[in-house]
Design brief:
Elements: H1 40-44, H2 51-76, H3 90-98, E1 105-107, H4 113-118, H5 128-131, H6 140-143, H7 154-168, E2 183-188, H8 195-207, E3 211-217, E4 220-221, E5 224-225, H9 235-240, E6 245-249, H10 253-268, E7 274-279, H11 298-305, H12 309-319, H13 325-345, H14 367-390
Parallel strand pairs: 1-2, 2-3, 3-7, 6-7
Antiparallel strand pairs: 4-5
Helix pairs in contact: 2-3, 2-12, 2-13, 3-10, 7-8
């Protein structure tokens, strides 16, 4: 069996029971490599990662958190209408995103800032929706990432359909590593209670679709704990549909990378879907409209703060002699620059041109959309002329 859940709660601590269901772990909370016979397959998937790769993961996790903190502050200052925090989930997102190939496609929900960062989506563009200026913010084709999904679980069906389309386009199981692709869809523990997720699992299973269902179990669906959502560990939801499933330590960036890399390799080769449950913790609020002090206590939060995913990578780098204070200071300087950019440019964001609604409707130019765009442009010109004449 894989390694047990890292760390029990301190004796006498008044926290929710710690789930001890076995999970895949490659790095302990204190930064040591976990070497056991049961995780040998996953360990082999990280053997090629160098100290520079680990440093890159650390950097991307730090930048993701700084983005998260700055976006939260901007909302508090009235510059954003809403923001969904992801503090504590950096390892699950960055680790899994590092396993993606350029031709893979991502269907996020609304909290996957680490995935968007790794895929190169501009940080300012990520906040257009939350500022209320745009329904999207980036071109999905450019980064292989669909736009945010605010309707819980609905995008899981979209991801499955996209994966089935890749099958029919002959982009799966050809043996060409530059062509074969897969889909990853990210959602939370609460979304597993939605019918759309179950339907996506049905279609993926019976069609052998190349899709990875990546569930970030941060243990709270707003104020509802997972104990109120499922009588068994969430990864078993996938097993019930005949989908190979695995539970991974979501605060271990290397384990998340290894598990996702295996699932994606199987999907690209035509081996079908996988369900991954990344067992992690939402250290912040569900969104900036939420007050987590109403439903969880400080002891529980402190228990998980001691298992911070960024601190774990730092501890690993130090333990293996790959930590450098000057380099770490450079990462912090880069994070400061990111914060300054966000504070300056988000305030300057304006609404896109009205004709932007006609963009990205289809992958290529469509006659009906082109006609509707032309009609709308003419309508705008006539409206402007009428307004000007009335003055």
């Amino acid at each position: 069996m894989p390694n047990p859940q890292p760390g029990e709660a301190p004796a006498g601590a008044d926290v929710a029971p710690v789930d001890v269901t076995p999970l895949v772990q490659l790095v302990s909370p204190t930064g040591e490599r976990v070497v056991e016979p049961d995780n040998a397959t996953y360990r082999s998937r990280v053997d090629h990662l160098t100290s520079e790769d680990l440093r890159a993961m650390y950097r991307d996790m730090v930048l993701t958190r700084r983005f998260d903190d700055e976006a939260t502050a901007l909302q508090r200052q009235g510059e954003l209408a809403l923001y969904a925090q992801g503090r504590g989930q950096e390892a699950a997102q960055v680790g899994s995103a590092y396993a993606l190939a350029p031709q893979d496609h991502v269907f996020p929900s609304y909290r996957e800032q680490g995935v968007l960062h790794v895929r190169g989506v501009d940080p300012v563009d990520r906040l257009r929706l939350f500022r209320g200026e745009d329904h999207g913010g980036w071109d999905p084709a450019e980064h292989g990432v669909q736009l945010y999904t605010l309707v819980i679980g609905s995008h899981v069906l979209h991801a499955t359909g996209y994966a089935m389309g890749m099958q029919r386009d002959g982009a799966v199981g050809t043996g060409d590593p530059a062509r074969d692709g897969a889909v990853v869809t990210y959602f939370g523990d609460g979304a597993t209670s939605q019918g759309d997720v179950s339907e996506g699992l049905v279609f993926a299973a019976v069609n052998g679709a190349p899709v990875v269902f990546f569930c970030q179990n941060n243990q709270w669906a707003i104020s509802e704990p997972t104990t109120r959502q499922s009588r068994s560990p969430l990864y078993r939801r996938g097993e019930g549909f005949g989908v190979p499933s695995v539970r991974v330590d979501g605060n271990d960036v290397l384990a998340c990378y290894a598990v996702t890399a295996e699932a994606l390799e199987r999907a690209r080769s035509g081996g079908g879907p996988t369900f991954i449950e990344a067992y992690t913790y939402r250290m912040g609020a569900h969104t900036t409209s939420d007050d987590p002090t109403k439903y969880r206590d400080r002891a529980e939060e402190e228990h998980w703060r001691q298992r911070d995913p960024i601190d774990r990578v730092a501890a690993l780098l130090r333990a293996e002699g790959d930590w450098d204070d000057a380099w770490a200071a450079g990462v912090e300087e880069e994070a400061d620059a990111l914060g300054e950019r966000l504070r300056a440019e988000v305030r300057e964001l304006g609404a896109p041109p009205s004709t932007a609604m006609f963009e990205h409707v289809y992958a290529t130019e469509h006659a009906q959309v082109a006609a509707e765009r032309a009609w709308y442009q003419q309508y705008e010109r006539e409206t402007d002329q009428t307004t000007e004449a009335a003055r």
